[in-house]
């Protein structure tokens, strides 16, 4: 079925779907409310024809590798959750505490490995690139597990645990040191009774650019900060050209899938959700595959019989 046929047959006014008014005329349409398809053979048919696949991933993918988010019930580091420490104000007030928190998360990641969902995505990208087809991963995860799995085309919209930005000169650098600085060695334990290390600011991670020595901060978009506009532009460009979109391990009512996937769906492009439960947005997508994405994704992205491997 051509995209045009699908579009003309299935699209109705966006008002019908109870959505916010669209910003452009192009988006002034959306899929009618219908039960999404969970038939893997139907998905595989669409997948086999896709040339540009955009995969939006969220915390659910990391959770299957045992990566904590420090949000929600029980999600505490000492007495705090991520939204209390991941702010510019918290960093200004207590840089040592915020660095202890990030140091803990960095060190924890050294013991975590990509799971079958990360690996399926990376293998799919490598295989399809040999056929002149592209896969881009747009992630809100900061743990670099996609990179570790071998994903090459990766847009990390929230930044990375393994990058820093200088608060003086603005230099952004990759940083995989363990510990990131001597003063943080052995610090960052998450137990609620642990006291702050109160590391003097001059002993926290410092910029290594010649003559700078400014205080480094994690290269991470904190609560209250805006996303990197260059990355957002790249995301927009990828979403414009994609002819299949996967939403993996993130509910489509939660940012960023809430922002990106409905926009793709509104153009008539098939969107397939892979997450634990259906959400109120699920009915706006063509496909929904419930369950752990480490189980559902590998068979979905495996080599299709129509793929010619040279
Ligand atoms: Zn600097």
From TrEMBL:
Residue ranges annotated for the Deacetylase sirtuin-type domain, each copy included: 33-307
Residues that hold NAD(+) according to the record: 58-77, 140-143, 249-251, 275-277, 293
Keyword Manganese: no
Binding site for Zn(2+): 166, 169, 207, 212
Entry superkingdom: Eukaryota
Catalytic activity: N(6)-succinyl-L-lysyl-[protein] + NAD(+) + H2O = 2''-O-succinyl-ADP-D-ribose + nicotinamide + L-lysyl-[protein]; N(6)-glutaryl-L-lysyl-[protein] + NAD(+) + H2O = 2''-O-glutaryl-ADP-D-ribose + nicotinamide + L-lysyl-[protein]; N(6)-malonyl-L-lysyl-[protein] + NAD(+) + H2O = 2''-O-malonyl-ADP-D-ribose + nicotinamide + L-lysyl-[protein]
Key word NAD present: yes
GO-annotated molecular function: histone deacetylase activity, NAD-dependent; NAD+ binding; protein-glutaryllysine deglutarylase activity; protein-malonyllysine demalonylase activity; protein-succinyllysine desuccinylase activity; zinc ion binding
Localization in the cell: Cytoplasm, Cytosol; Mitochondrion; Nucleus
PROSITE patterns associated with the record: SIRTUIN (PS50305)
InterPro entries registered for this protein in UniProt: DHS-like_NAD/FAD-binding_dom, NAD-dep_sirtuin_deacylases, Sirtuin, Sirtuin_cat_small_dom_sf, Sirtuin_class_III, Ssirtuin_cat_dom
EC number(s) reported in the record: 2.3.1.-
Binding site for substrate: 102, 105
Alphabetical keyword list: Cytoplasm, Metal-binding, Mitochondrion, NAD, Nucleus, Transferase, Transit peptide, Zinc
Any one annotated GO CC term: mitochondrial inner membrane
Family, similarity comment: Belongs to the sirtuin family. Class III subfamily.
Record text about domains: In contrast to class I sirtuins, class III sirtuins have only weak deacetylase activity. Difference in substrate specificity is probably due to a larger hydrophobic pocket with 2 residues (Tyr-102 and Arg-105) that bind to malonylated and succinylated substrates and define the specificity.
Function: NAD-dependent lysine demalonylase, desuccinylase and deglutarylase that specifically removes malonyl, succinyl and glutaryl groups on target proteins. Has weak NAD-dependent protein deacetylase activity; however this activity may not be physiologically relevant in vivo.
Descriptive protein name: NAD-dependent protein deacylase sirtuin-5, mitochondrial
Species the sequence originates in: Chelonoidis abingdonii
